[in-house]
Amino acid sequence: MNAVMDTKGSDARTAPTIRHLEDGDEARWDAYVMACPEATFFHRGGWRRVLREAFGHPAHFLYAEQDGRIRGILPLGHVKTLLFGNALVSMPFCVYGGVAADDEATAQALIDAARDLAEALRVDYLELRHLRRHCPQWPCKDDLYVTFRKPIEPEEEANLLAIPRKQRAMVRKGIKHGLASRFEDEVATFFGIYADSVRRLGTPVFSRRYFQCLLDTFGQDARILTVTHRDQPVSSVLSFCFRDEVLPYYGGGMPTARELAGFDFLYWEVMRHACAAGYRCFDYGRSKRGTGSFSFKKNWGFQPQPLYYEYHLVKADAIPEINPLNPKYRLFIEAWKRLPTPVANLIGPRLSRGLG
Asked: Which of 40, 117, 183, 237 could pair covalently with 96 via S-S, beta carbons 3.0-4.6 A apart?
């Protein structure tokens, strides 16, 4: 039986019923995700499994039902660690999340239910990650993260010519070096490249189990593309596919990637393959303002679009600042860069499960 939450302050004759997604009902949820314009890949029901199996985090996937059909959804993950605190987030480990609904009244009913759940769980805060403001009265972090999205042209050559000249020259440099790309069904090569790459950036790595869980859960909608030079791996990226969009999400490169233009060639190959498969939107994902990845994506001709992370504070008295730009983490980051890779890979997953 689905758990039911009371929608306070609304007319019981017209208000939707707020329920929790339960095992066996994922097909209805995902059917709504595919049809709702506001929904994203990160609203898919499979993230409930990922949160539980890869991180051990409880998931509270709320949906609004009216007249026997779903009218809106709000997936939530409960991330609680000693180091990074206690939060209810939509969605942890995802760029987007938040509410997706047929109308504002339904969206508000879901947000009210999430706020009540946050209060009942006594978390530090509730965080909703939106592409637009939904809760203008809440504190909002809108000056840190941006996303980059751009249409994919129907023709391969048109996409290449749409890349600004200097960046296009880097793509051609990779081509001249004889770089090649291949899709892979296993996580081993990708994980080795990714783990070493994030260690050099001073970031704890996610577990290999997490990436395997993504492949197992989302099937052909989670794909790994690896770039090689003379049959040796240079760079690799795990991308998500959703409707007509491709989202290169987790990527990394070997130390040789820069001199070979391995990153530039990698993302061009993602775009080229997406064009051939009929995808029409390239989502470069989230970056922090003032970082190297922000500049890299702008150099591709993408314009930054602000992300709105909105907060209902429960036990916390201020918006959290859990990000590498926070000065309090600088010493940790510099120390992490010096760790041997095997040590970083052993300790990292225990820390990264709180970096939702």
From this structure: 40
pLDDT digits (tens, 9 = 90+) for 308-348: 999 999 999 888 876 655 566 566 667 766 778 787 778 77
Q: Are residues 109 and 155 in the same domain?
A: no
Instruction: Give dist(CA 327, CA 329) in Å, integer.
Output: 5
Same domain for 311 and 284: no
**Residue 16 domain-assigned (yes or no):** yes
Report residue 211: phi and psi, to 5°.
-70, -35
- Under DSSP, the state recorded for 320 is -
Is it true that the peptide bond before 34 is cis, omega within 30 degrees of 0? no
DSSP code per residue over 69-89: EEEEEEEEEEEEETTTEEEEE
Which residue has 């200097």 as its token pair? 166
DSSP 8-state secondary structure symbol assigned to residue 207: P
Go through 66-97 and write b for each residue having 16 or more CB atoms within 10 A of its CB, e for each that does not.
Answer: eeeebbbbbbbbbbbbeebbbbbbbbbbbbbb
**Residue 298 located in a structural domain:** yes
Which structural domain range is residue 194 located in?
146-304
Considering the domain architecture, whether residues 299 and 167 belong to the same structural domain is answered as yes
CB 149 within 8 A of CB 302: yes
Together in a domain, 232 and 281? yes
Angle between helices 208-218 and 188-201 (to 10 degrees): 130
Residues of the chain with pLDDT under 70: 1-13, 322-333, 336-337, 356
Residue 121 domain flag: yes
CATH number at residue 171: 3.40.630.30
